[in-house]
Amino acid sequence: MPAAAKMRSTAQAALMKNIIVGTAGHIDHGKSALVRALTGIETDRWGEEKRRGISIDLGFAHLTLGQTRLGFIDVPGHERFVKNMLAGAGGIDLVLFVIGADESIKPQTREHFDICRLLGIRRGIVVLTKADLIDAEWLELVRLEVDEFIAGSFLEAAPVVAVSAKTGQGIDELKKLLAAEAGAVAAKSSAGHLRLPIDRAFAMKGFGTVVTGTLVAGALTVEQEVEVAERGLKLRVRGVQVHGDAAKRAYAGQRTAVNLAGVEAGDLSRGMTVIEPGRLRAWSTIDCELDLLPSAKPLKHRAPVHFHAWTTETEARVKLLGDKSTLEPGGRALVRLELKEPVPLLPGDRFIIRQFSPVTTIGGGRVVALPTEPRRLRRKDIEARARLLAACAPEQRLLQAVSEAPCGLPIPTAIQHTGLTDAEIKAAAFGAVIKLDAPVEWYAPRDWWKARGEALHTSVTSFHRQNPLLPGLPKEQFRARELAGAPEWMLDALIKSSATVTAEADALRLKTHQLHLKQDEEEAFTRIVEAFARAGLAVPSTNEVLASSGVDPARARTLLQLLFRQKRLVRISDELIYHPSAIGQLKQLLAARRGEKFGVGEFKDWTGVSRKYAIPLLEFLDRERITRRDGDSRVVL
After folding, report:
1. 341-352 core/surface letters (b: 16 or more CB in 10 A; e: else)
2. How far apart are CA 500 and CA 509, in angstroms?
3. CA-based nearest residue to 62, from 40, 87, 86
4. Do the Cβ atoms of 502 and 495 come closer than 8 Å?
5. Which tens digit of pLDDT belongs to each residue from 325-362?
6. Phi, psi (rounded to 5 degrees) for 578
7. Are 392-516 and 519-636 the same fold in CATH?
8. What does the pLDDT look like over 171-199, one tens digit per residue?
9. With respect to CATH, is domain 519-636 assigned 3.40.50.1460?
């Protein structure tokens, strides 16, 4: 294909609306035949499926109607394969609810209907298949039964069309209805966080590992780095196909095949999820709003269930929140689900639960909150938190998330706890939430950040008042008291945002702070300096100098530290302190002997000091790279 044509094709793909259409209905009601009549594509790909005449696993097809591309997921209808049906149902935007006109409503019709409702599917078309097998009077009776069945549900106002895949009756009308219904469906967001739940993983000769799935959010590009959430594997996208055609980029709402480099096909399987590295995480505990079907048995606290979300199936235990011990059929409750295997989920994700034995669908719902472990909360407190998050607006959800953290959250964690995109978090971060000036994108409660700034000013002011001769409050002391557990950069960000406090080395001081010595301190200051200046290289004991300074020992020690900071004195060792003039003269003496090799004896002769002073001075000169040790001797550099 010429480059210009490729660019047009890519642009058209980006502009095209992508909708996922799923089939649902009882076994042998003609779902696969219907998809074949609409698209010309055979979805039963396994030999056993063709031999037995039933769908066992998910099948896929596609159809373009104007500027809308429909991706079809054909699900099996047999009760034994409902878990396979669930693996494809999570990404459905529009359902073709198939009822065989010759048999009307059957057991899996009801179960699939319940699943569609529990997954929050909002739009659909009721398709009465095999219309060629019945007369008009029977068809009218089936329509009446269907109207009664869907009354009060999301399909109540849905169009109902009778078709025959064999004769073509009603297929053109169905295509028109599909175009109209698809136009009313909100497109999935390619600006969202990349999520590709894997429904197949296999090795293809000449390509390597390939995974397929419905891209439910975000976009996927060739050469992009991705992560398999459940394994923490970071992989490279070697190639992309959309509906069987090679593409540079796949968009949300498209059936996608991805060629992954750096992994064996056997290491991946249905139920895993391809994500953007570091954005989402897999959870073993989730707080949910659960609806129990009227047909289910009462659900007891800590009951085991099968959990299905996107393409994942795992075991779970249901913990009823608050003081409930049993959820009655047809009831709704807030629950905590403890999953056997962690699953990458976000608030708002839908799920299905099935009974252990017999394995039937008993309920489902949506994720409303993810736990803030390792906090320990009582059941009633967990329920109160879940109830709040189930009903709150995005701004409140973000505020709740950042408030629960000791010092705010980086954006990946904020995403995980809110389900919002980066752009939505930035839009929500106003008023009660503030974005910090940080090396990473970080959000904190505005009141908390303001309180930290006030604590900084108050702490430094108090320190100056209590320690007038010290340069300022040690950084680590403030960090330990006010920013325990916070990232190291946070104190720097707080200082930068402060109008009154600055930092010098490891100390915090008020910008207006100036050192003011009392008269006796000024005199002591001068005595200490002059004592070391007069001594030359044979300095007196530090305690002797401080004792004769004229102030109490504590203040004298503080004045000594001030002299070090002002570089009025030089500390050679714990016991030896020198005036800079004495050190300067020593350096001049040695500069005249550059390249000369000498020992301790010669050094004592040159300087006139005893060994008590000579050894510490030589070690100091080594550190200053004025001399270099060479065995038992030294060389002047």
Report:
1. ebbbbbbebbbb
2. 9
3. 40
4. yes
5. 899 999 999 999 999 999 999 998 999 999 988 888 89
6. -125, 155
7. yes
8. 999 999 999 998 888 877 777 889 999 98
9. no
